[in-house]
TrEMBL record:
Its EC number is 4.3.2.7. It comes from Cupriavidus numazuensis. It comes from the Bacteria. Keywords: Lyase. Transmembrane segments: none annotated. This is glutathione-specific gamma-glutamylcyclotransferase. The keyword Lyase applies. It is an enzyme of class 4 (lyase). Residues 243-254 have a biased composition (Polar residues). Residues 230-260 are annotated as: Disordered. InterPro entries: ChaC (IPR006840), GGCT-like (IPR013024), GGCT-like_sf (IPR036568).
């Protein structure tokens, strides 16, 4: 299945999960509303934006933001980095075979995209973002300092981002590449294979001129495993696991829709 903006407007995903074993993992409605109110109450007062706000995307938001925005720019967050730190038991995996999706965790920096939400639509668009990103409370909404490519030497601005909640049961910590690749290879959830999530994120970053060595390394390892599997199925071993397949194309996956 693929999620649409209309699904977020009607809260279809939460409704559909309330009668499943996943229901106990959903963020209670009162906590959902409180985190949303807190984020809105602490929104930065940047006169240059005339009440508009930035939202920072580092994963699926890059290639499928789904929120109304009037501008998008490349941007960098310092103090956090991107990694496969969250087990996905709904969108890109199951309870029995969790996949992995990206989260922002402490340290380093992260290159991504910021989306400008017009002032009169902030509360409406944030509610949709919460239904997409805060379903289980795996993230903490934070106003982080960012620098945009439009003003790399200009003053830092604030953008809303969803950073890892290290106390969440789905927090995976820093897994070795081999463990991440194994999850990406074999897990499939409501929105398709976990590997497609990596592929779409790489494509989205590349389209916007951003190179992520970590994600690229995982992709090459995944492709090497694919080549080894294909060779074994044909009775040979043309590309042993670990072979550099950096020239393998990032073909476009079938479904462009995603939530974290």
């Amino acid at each position: 299945m693929a999620i649409t903006r209309q699904d977020l407007e009607t809260d279809r995903l939460r409704t559909s999960l309330c009668s499943t074993p996943i229901a106990s993992a959903l963020l209670p409605e009162h906590a959902f509303e409180q985190t949303l109110r807190d984020a809105l109450a602490s929104r930065p007062d940047d006169g240059a934006l005339n009440g508009d706000v930035w939202v920072f995307g580092y994963g699926s938001l890059i290639w499928n933001p789904m929120v109304v925005h009037t501008e998008r720019q490349r941007a960098t967050v310092h103090g956090y980095h991107r990694g496969f730190y969250l087990y996905s038991r709904i969108n890109r995996g199951t309870l029995d075979n969790p996949g992995l999706v990206l989260g922002l965790d402490r340290g380093g920096c992260c290159h991504g995209m910021v989306f400008r939400i017009p002032s009169h639509m902030v509360e409406q668009e944030f509610r949709l973002l919460w239904r997409r990103e805060m379903l289980t409370g795996a993230y903490h909404p934070r106003w982080l300092r960012v620098r945009t490519t439009a003003e790399p030497d200009g003053p830092e601005q604030r953008a809303l981002a969803f950073v890892m909640n290290r106390e969440h049961e789905g927090y995976a910590g820093r897994l070795p590449d081999a463990s991440v690749v194994e999850r990406l290879r074999h897990a499939v959830g409501l929105y398709g294979p976990a590997r497609e999530y990596l592929q779409q994120t790489l494509l989205g970053l590349a389209t916007n001129g951003v190179d992520d060595p970590y994600l690229g390394r995982l992709w090459r390892q995944l492709q090497a495993h694919d080549a080894a599997d294909a060779a074994r199925s044909h009775g040979g071993l043309a590309h042993p696991a670990g072979t550099d397949t950096s020239d393998a194309p990032l073909s476009q996956p079938a479904s462009p829709h995603e939530t974290v």
